[in-house]
UniProtKB/TrEMBL annotation:
<dbReference type="GO" id="GO:0016787">
    <property type="term" value="F:hydrolase activity"/>
</dbReference>
<dbReference type="InterPro" id="IPR035959">
    <property type="entry name" value="RutC-like_sf"/>
</dbReference>
<dbReference type="InterPro" id="IPR006175">
    <property type="entry name" value="YjgF/YER057c/UK114"/>
</dbReference>
<protein>
    <submittedName>
        <fullName>Rid family detoxifying hydrolase</fullName>
    </submittedName>
</protein>
<dbReference type="InterPro" id="IPR006056">
    <property type="entry name" value="RidA"/>
</dbReference>
<keyword id="KW-0378">Hydrolase</keyword>
<dbReference type="Pfam" id="PF01042">
    <property type="entry name" value="Ribonuc_L-PSP"/>
</dbReference>
<comment type="similarity">
    <text>Belongs to the RutC family.</text>
</comment>
Length: 126
């Protein structure tokens, strides 16, 4: 059985999907981009601020499912420019204990929704 997870503390979906789906004890988040849920505006000042907003959006979705970053077992990071990898990684690393960090892939792509620079999705387990 699946349960739809939603929160007003993360941006509303911009298409026919949900912020996350809980199936049993496993949470699948949709990709988050740097939309500030309060202003509904993109945070594109620099790649670190953009990544921080993405991670805060994911944090809100995890919290809506009664989870934290400690529950995350896998992340997928999509970036528009691999030259930003280390800056994105600097911010991403502040959300995880390095000894228990999740599995991950980082992929450079041609474009992302709203032409942002980074999108991240997660899988978490209770």
């Amino acid at each position: 059985m699946k349960k739809i997870i939603t929160t007003t503390n993360a941006p509303a979906p911009i298409g026919p999907y949900n912020q996350a789906v809980l199936s049993g004890n496993t949470l699948y988040t949709s990709g988050q981009i740097a939309i500030n849920p309060t202003t509904n505006k993109l945070v594109l000042d620099d790649i670190k601020s953009e990544t921080k907003q993405v991670m805060e959006n994911l944090k809100a979705v995890l919290e809506a499912a009664d989870m934290t970053f400690e529950n995350v077992i896998k992340t997928s990071i999509f970036i528009s420019d691999m030259h930003n990898f280390s800056l994105i990684n600097d911010v991403y690393a502040t959300y995880f204990d390095e000894d228990f960090a999740p599995a991950r892939e980082t992929v450079e792509v041609a474009n992302l929704p709203k032409f942002v620079n980074v999108e991240i999705s997660m899988i978490a387990v209770k």
